[in-house]
Amino acid sequence: MRRRGFWRLMDDEFGAAYARWLERDHVLGALGNRSALEAIESGIKPREAWLALCVDMDVPVERRLGKELREHRKRG
Known about the structure:
Layout: H1 3-14, H2 16-25, E1 27-28, E2 34-35, H3 36-41, H4 46-56, H5 67-75
Antiparallel strand pairs: 1-2
Helix pairs in contact: 1-2, 1-4
């Protein structure tokens, strides 16, 4: 996953404004007590940051793929 994919997932799940706050200010123990932004900037892969946020924010597994993939699965 690239950074653009991370943002798409964040916006889909949390909305743009809250996603920005989460990435910048929400501290994640799974990422060494850093925000997702700090972790990504230090070399953590965006996918790892996304999954850590999902766990911390109790995002159900079925919503972790993003809106587009969820809708595709419903149709398929």
